[in-house]
């Protein structure tokens, strides 16, 4: 692995990084009241690439006030559905036109490899915005039947309206920031809400460039406010703010609980997309080559820093040895290096602290008796790199099996039983319920397990979410609500019933 060479970037990216990065509030760039900054690091080198204003509580107050004014008195809610859709379409066009710079920023800021994560980041965001651009004209209520009241000549007219929930606080994570921002902003803007968006302090840069594009697309001042900052004080202040009507959060279950506690003050609506400890179940009749490739791809995509990671592999004993050998070989074959190298498949973890955390899980697995088949070593030199790790001989009482690691570590457990109820119990033996998959050619087995596994998404010979048109979210501690598809619009809408008497 070599990453000593200067990282390549376009002149436009270089100019953006040299900018003074401030907060975007009310359609203007403003300084943080405290004057505090965030030092943004390139995880492939550990070197600083930018400094960004750090929002504090006063800045959150300013941003919420701007969003409230834009919601109550601004033009956004009064625009026609076609006008809102046109602005979202223009925003998608602008993202596509600035794809090179946005991709370079994502790679430098998060460490994600160009292939496949970086190459997918902008197209995914564009696809989501185009999808939600089509929805404003399709949000409709219903005319409902009603009984005639005694003495009335006719029954009342009863109908429903779908109205925006109001001011929304959105808090996104560091692993895929541009796509996460589009996933949150698309349905919120389509429904007529206004937004205060807080990107993670480690990866704020692509959302700050997005602010320029929002303004260029014609989004009115105050409709979207972007306030990078630390979880405390900025995230906590946003979640607790009495003038925020809803919070949408993606991140860890631990922080999700804090969001719920903070939101209780004014009983604001909350949606949570949280962690996963996802079962990947392989039967002897499965297409093993395909299953091995999918397990390795899912487990190590974005260095395992993804909530859909195949982190618990349950494999029938008849094919266990072949499967473990295949996944271990796939892990060893992944080139480790900086994300800007097209040959890289495993980039750095996002920070030194996160690397230490994941290394702690590797050590815990060894101490608790799991067999480390391959990987797990921290690599020397600058940056936050480690070899992807495959454990076998694991069991439910180990930390690496129970807890979400959010790093390039996967655990294999064998099973011999043909009792599908027992296999489902094993898969469901987790606090999470986000994603699961079943690998078999037997449709009876596949559909029976799909019915009994407690997860928001169950794949059959496929692992992970479907397209953006399909709802995504989890059971249990994996969250509340569904994102993607039409279901995500419900997170940002209120239903109002109107009753009209004629006499």
Strand content is 15-25%
Head-to-tail CA distance between termini: 81 Å
Unreliable sequence segments: 1-5
- Order of strands across the biggest sheet? 14-15-16-13-12-18-19
Supply the CATH class of the largest domain: Alpha Beta
- In this structure, how is the largest beta sheet organized? 7 strands, mixed
Rg from alpha-carbon coordinates: 24 Å
Structure class: alpha/beta
Binned, the helix content reads: 25-40%
Describe the secondary structure blueprint for this structure.
Blueprint lengths: L10 H8 L4 E3 L2 E3 L6 E5 L6 E6 L3 H16 L8 H17 L1 H12 L3 H20 L9 E2 L12 E8 L2 E5 L5 H14 L3 E5 L6 H13 L6 E3 L4 H10 L5 E5 L2 H11 L5 E5 L5 E4 L5 H13 L11 E5 L3 H13 L19 H16 L3 E4 L14 E4 L6 H4 L6 E7 L4 H8 L4 E2 L1 E5 L3 H10 L4 E4 L14 E2 L2 E2 L6 H4 L2 E8 L3
Parallel strand pairs: 7-8, 7-10, 8-9, 10-11, 12-13, 12-18, 13-16, 15-16, 18-19
Antiparallel strand pairs: 1-2, 3-4, 5-6, 6-22, 11-21, 14-15, 17-20
What's the quick description here?
With 503 residues, the protein is α/β, with parallel strands linked by helices.
Task: Please give a structural write-up.
The longest helix has 20 residues, at 114-133. This protein folds into two domains: 11-274, Aldehyde Dehydrogenase, Chain A, domain 1, CATH 3.40.605; 279-467, Aldehyde Dehydrogenase, Chain A, domain 2 (3-Layer(aba) Sandwich), CATH 3.40.309. By secondary structure, the protein is α/β, with parallel strands linked by helices. The protein is globular, with a radius of gyration of 24 Å. It contains 16 helices and 22 strands. A hairpin with a 2-residue loop joins β1 (23-25) and β2 (28-30). α3 packs across α7 (205-217) and α4 (99-110) packs across α5.
């Amino acid at each position: 692995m070599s990453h000593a060479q200067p990282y390549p970037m376009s002149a436009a990216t270089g100019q953006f990084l040299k900018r003074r990065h401030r907060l975007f509030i009310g359609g203007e760039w403003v300084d943080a009241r405290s004057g505090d900054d965030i030092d943004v690091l390139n995880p492939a080198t550990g070197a600083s690439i930018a400094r960004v204003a750090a929002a504090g509580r006063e800045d959150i107050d300013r941003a919420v006030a701007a969003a409230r004014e834009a919601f109550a008195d601004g033009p956004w809610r009064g625009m026609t559905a076609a006008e809102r859709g046109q602005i979202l379409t223009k925003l998608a066009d602008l993202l596509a036109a600035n794809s090179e710079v946005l991709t370079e920023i994502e790679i430098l800021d998060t460490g994600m490899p160009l292939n496949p994560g970086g190459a997918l980041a902008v197209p995914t965001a564009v696809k989501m915005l185009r999808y939600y651009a089509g929805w404003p004209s399709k949000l409709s209520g219903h005319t409902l039947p009603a009984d005639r009241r005694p003495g009335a000549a006719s029954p009342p007219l009863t109908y429903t309206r779908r109205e925006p929930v109001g001011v929304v606080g959105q808090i996104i994570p560091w692993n895929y920031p541009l796509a996460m921002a589009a996933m949150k902003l698309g349905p919120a803007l389509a429904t007529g809400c206004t937004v205060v968006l807080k990107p993670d302090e480690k990866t704020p840069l692509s959302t700050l460039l997005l602010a320029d594009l929002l303004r260029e697309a014609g989004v009115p001042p105050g409709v979207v406010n972007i306030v990078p900052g630390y979880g405390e004080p900025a995230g906590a202040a946003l979640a607790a703010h009495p003038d925020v009507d809803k919070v949408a959060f993606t991140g860890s279950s631990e922080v999700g609980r804090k969001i719920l506690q903070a939101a209780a003050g004014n009983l604001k609506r909350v949606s949570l997309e949280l962690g996963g400890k996802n079962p990947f179940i392989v039967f002897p009749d499965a297409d093993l080559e395909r299953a091995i490739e999918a397990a390795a791809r899912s487990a190590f995509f974005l260095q395992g820093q993804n909530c859909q990671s195949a982190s618990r592999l349950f494999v029938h004993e008849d094919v266990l040895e072949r499967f473990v050998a295949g996944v271990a070989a796939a892990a060893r074959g992944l080139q480790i290096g900086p994300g800007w190298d097209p040959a890289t498949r495993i980039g750095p973890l996002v920070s030194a602290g996160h690397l230490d955390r994941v290394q702690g899980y590797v050590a815990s697995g060894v101490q608790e008796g799991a067999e480390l088949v391959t990987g797990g070593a921290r690599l020397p030199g600058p940056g936050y790199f480690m070899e992807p790790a495959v454990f076998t001989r694991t069991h439910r009482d180990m930390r690496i099996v129970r807890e979400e690691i959010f790093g390039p570590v996967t655990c294999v457990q064998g099973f011999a039983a043909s009792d599908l109820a027992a296999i489902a119990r094993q898969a469901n033996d987790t606090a999470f319920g986000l994603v699961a998959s079943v690998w078999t050619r037997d449709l009876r087995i596949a559909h029976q397990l799909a019915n009994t596994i407690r997860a928001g998404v169950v794949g059959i010979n496929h692992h992970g979410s479907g397209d953006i048109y399909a709802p995504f979210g989890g059971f249990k501690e994996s969250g509340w609500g569904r994102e993607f598809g039409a279901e995500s619009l419900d997170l940002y809408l209120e239903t109002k019933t109107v009753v009209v008497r004629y006499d």
